[in-house]
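ok new one. same drill as before - structure tokens go in, u give me an amino acid for every spot. 119 of them this time. try not to just spam alanines like last time pls lmao
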């Protein structure tokens, strides 16, 4: 009957093993790091491919003013997006320093998940 009342509940983190989630001291900073890293990687790849496609469109415009303007607009918006990403990284570093005392606490590019060693 003790099991039904909840007195025999055991912390599952101690049962995972040596490479699992036995150390939860990195909780929120590690989660935020994972999210920010994934956003920056996806945003960087998106910007790169947009610049490549816009550059190709610009080169193959063959003097068509509408195509040239569309390619220039795409290049401009891609570069503005890149500047916004860099500014976001700077702001994230400032917030990380204020919250955790280390400017790189959030921006460290390490993905932590099940079975991976803690940093």
């Amino acid at each position: 009957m003790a099991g039904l009342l909840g007195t025999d509940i055991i912390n599952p983190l101690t049962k995972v093993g040596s490479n699992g989630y036995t150390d939860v001291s990195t909780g929120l900073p590690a989660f935020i790091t994972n999210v920010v890293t994934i956003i920056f990687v996806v945003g960087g790849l998106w910007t790169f491919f947009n610049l490549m496609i816009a550059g190709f469109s610009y080169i193959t415009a063959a003097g068509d003013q509408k195509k040239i303007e569309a390619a220039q607009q795409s290049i401009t918006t891609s570069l503005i997006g890149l500047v916004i990403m860099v500014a976001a990284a700077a702001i994230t570093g400032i917030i990380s320093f204020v919250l955790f005392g280390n400017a790189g606490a959030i921006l460290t590019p390490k993905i932590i998940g099940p079975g991976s060693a803690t940093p």
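Residues 26 and 37 are 16 Å apart (CA to CA). and btw The longest helix spans residues 65-100.
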